[in-house]
Amino acid sequence: MLWIDQKCEVSFMIFVSDLDRTLIYSKRALAEYPLEEELELISVEKNLDKDLSFMTNKSLEYLRELSSKLLFVPVTTRSIHQFQRVSFNGISHKYAVTSNGANIFYNGQLLLEWNRNVTEEVKESSIPLIEVIALLNERFNIKDNLRIMDDLFVYYFCEEKVTRPFLQELTDFLAEIGWRVSYQGRKLYVVPAAVSKGKAVKFIQEREDGEPLIGAGDSLLDDEFLKLCHSSFILGHGELAAIHPRTKQYHVIQQLGVKGGEELLKSILDMVDGK
Length: 275
What we know:
single chain, Hypothetical Protein Ta0175, Chain: A, domain 2, five-stranded parallel sheet, about 35% helix, HAD_sf, TPP-like, SPP-like_dom
C-alpha cells in the first residue's frame, strides 16, 4: 500500500470521506452501537427543526483541524436534497460528491457537464431503473419501503435482515444487467455500475493536479474511491470490514459507532501531523 509522501505540502492533500456511518450517525446508528461513556453529541443534520444525524464534539474539532490542512471532500450516496440538510457547523468544502458519484458540486454549484456524462453512460450500460424495480419485485420479492434517489438509483429499507446468500444471489443477478448492490445497516442500495464514487473522486483529483488522497468509508460503494487513495481508513462496523478481501490493505478502526468516527478522524489527523 502506498503511503503519503512526507515531502508533499499537507495543505494540498485531499481528504475524501463518506458521511453516513463514517463521519455522521443517525439516531438509528447511535442506538445500534450504544456508547459506554457519555459523549457530547452535536447535531449536523436537521429536517424541519428535527435533529437527524450527529457527530461528537471532538469529531467536529478534529474535522475542523483537518479541513485547515487538507482539502476536505464529502463523498456520499445521499441525494442532493438529503446532502443539503447536512451542515458541519461552519466547516467548508470546495467540492462535494452526492448521489454515489452522479453529481459533483464545486463551490456550491452543480457541475452539469459531469452529471450529463454520467446520465448518458448509465443509459448506455444498464437497463432502466423502472425495469430494475419491477425485476426485484418479481424475481426476489423485494418490495419493502422504497426510495428513488435523484431518478438514478434506489434503496430499500429492509424490515428483516438480509442474509449473505441472498445478497450474493442478488449481486450476481444485478451484475448481468449493469447494476450492483450494497447493504448498509437496514438499507439495501441498488445502483447502476456506471454511477461511481471512484470516478467522481478521480475527476476531482485530476482537477486538483493529481494531489495525494486520504480516504475514509465503510461500505462496498466506498471501496471505489478508497482503492485510489494513498492511505485508506475504514470502520470496523461497516460492510467493507465484514466481507471485503482487501481489508488488510486498509487501516481498520475497531471502535464501533459514533466513537469510531471520532477515532477515525483522530487517527487521520495524527498521521497528517506525523505522530
